[in-house]
Amino acid sequence: MKHARKNSYFLKIPYNFYERPYARLFFHVFSFIYLEILFRIWIFHTLLSIGTLFSVLFALPAGVFVFGLTSFFNYKVNRILSWVLILLYTLPYAVQVVYFSVFRTFLSLYSISGTSQVMQFWQQIFFAVLKSLVILILMLVPLVVMLLIGLKKFRFYPILWRYLPISAGALIFLHTLPLLIMLGASRITYSAYDLYYHTAAPELSMQKLGMLTTLRLDLKRLMLGFEPDTGSNEPPWSAPAAQPKTNDKTIDNQDDTSSAPATAPVYKPNIMDIDFDRLKKGEKDKTIVNMHEYFSQAQPTMQNKYTGIFKGCNLVFITAESYSHYAIDRELTPTLYKLANEGFRFNHFYNPVWGVSTSDGEYVACTGLIPKSGVWSFSRSGKNWLPFAMGNQFSTLGYSTRAYHNHTYTYYDRDISHPNMGYAYMGVGNGLEIKKSWPESDVEMIEKTTPNYSGDKKFHVYYMTVSGHLNYTFTGNYIAYKNKELVDHLPNSDAAKAYLACNIELDRALELLIQRLEAAGVAENTVIAMSADHYPYGLTNRQISELAGHEVEENFELYKSSFILWKKGMKPVTIEKPCSSLDIIPTLSNLFGLEFDSRLLMGRDILSDAPPLVIFSNRSWITDKARYNAPKNKTENLADKELPEDYVKDMNKLVNHKFRYSAYILDKDYYRVVLPPHKTDD
Fold first, then answer.
1. Helices vs strands, H then E, count in the chain
2. Residue 513 domain boundaries
3. What is the pLDDT of residues 173-223, one digit of tens each?
4. Domain count for the chain
5. What pLDDT digit, counting tens, does each position of 317-372 carry?
6. How far apart are CA 588 and CA 603, in angstroms?
7. Which class for 216: exposed (0-12), middle (13-18), buried (19 or more C-beta within 10 A)?
8. CA distance between the termini of the chain
């Protein structure tokens, strides 16, 4: 009789709701919906978007799938599977919340391989868990309900096999439903349809498809690969250069032709001798053929009056941890103030945050390429030829080229990426001996390393600093505590003061660097270039607004930053063009008179007459004519007249192309194809 009761389970209608088969079905479906909505409210602070609809719709088949998976086995196995699967599908939501709390971006599945490295920052993770404790507890509600009520009340008998087609049909229908809605809705760039089928943009996907679907697509693309579809291979229309507004100390784009002399110089494009037609004929890989076609048509940037003005100079190139313009103060950080105001002054410089935070930020600044979503681009580039990396460019000219990092030398696989850029690389653990602390001292790094190169005839050195790292407290941050007395008098919050204290260390490091260069007699022949890896996301937006003195806009202004480009004795030059860290490599290459091909870089020489383009990780962008907010699909006209027809559409296409072909350069080791090492080593 007991066996008969089990087999007739679906045929009888129990009086107790919990004993009904659909009770567990409803539970799993509503658990997914609950988690999606919680996640959306916590991260995006709103449910009023089309993304909420797709999050809920994609939760339906997920719940049905889990219900089915826990209904095929015997009672005991189904019972265990039920709570185990709830734990497993709750975990990604919780992990993303904590990761976002620390890095202000989302964790890709590929990055899980680097979890052991991230755990070095267990204190930051611990504080992030505490900060997110409310939402994490709420996310555990489905698991708690299952453990306290479900395991006692729900029935876990297997469903009859004859109901399998019905269950499968329901699963297929529920999965197809949101796909059909996508087909009937807008298919424009960055729509739900576009993100599902054609474009890998995790931040937008989280907003418009939901966490679960983004994770599923990430897994699928990681396992099977992903070929983005951006339509025609032909480079889209590009806006003409805006007319400049210049004076002796300010440039917008280039010199005003109305005041140019009759014999104005004729500038050449920054390109190299690459026979794309010959390369296309001998290439069997269709993707590489498309790349040849694309780059052969790409618009190069032109040389200009700044071309080669630093030729023959030494270069100190710095990526400063979490540095920003908020750290520049005449009294607190006089060296930063001096460098920022006595060199090139970039008034509209942006430093977007990318998927792998610091590593991707370094990758952008050091290569002029956009990181590929879902992978560690810098680490992966370690097997590629990077002819435009400063280390490789200067080493071919006979410079000594060194790189230093005052934290673990293997972190983010820098022991792979940095030597590949042409540097003799040293960090903590492979030769750089500095005091053990968290974070380590930038001053001590400069003190220990400058003797290695200051006596060289020609040198280029790259630094990745760490003193500006979060958390910004006086109890868990050695550098903040070290400089606490210097900021105690400030009216700011403790977090803001701790951030400034950390950047005082950077300021003192730069002061020592200049002193050492002057002592060696090379200061006047050395250029210092410095940008951040990302904005200080260790501060809340409220704390950043506190430093700014006003509420900071979160899609564009949040990423505004500082790019220091200074040479002792130079006349200050103010740059009003929008620009970003993506533009650093082509700008430096032109200033130093290096041979490079501007078509093969995603950034642009800031000092050329090329129209500006700042690209953000969520596919938003800024030009001299407009700025486009991709998550909201809204455009703000910055020009005095109406935008050209299809301007936004064409700019979106251009931005998509840059993401696409930058990823191809990484995947295909493209520079090795078009510029083999022996050609640049002559």
1. 28, 16
2. 303-615
3. 999 999 999 998 888 888 999 999 998 889 999 999 999 999 999 999 888
4. 2
5. 999 999 999 999 999 999 999 999 999 999 999 999 999 989 999 999 999 999 99
6. 11
7. middle
8. 88
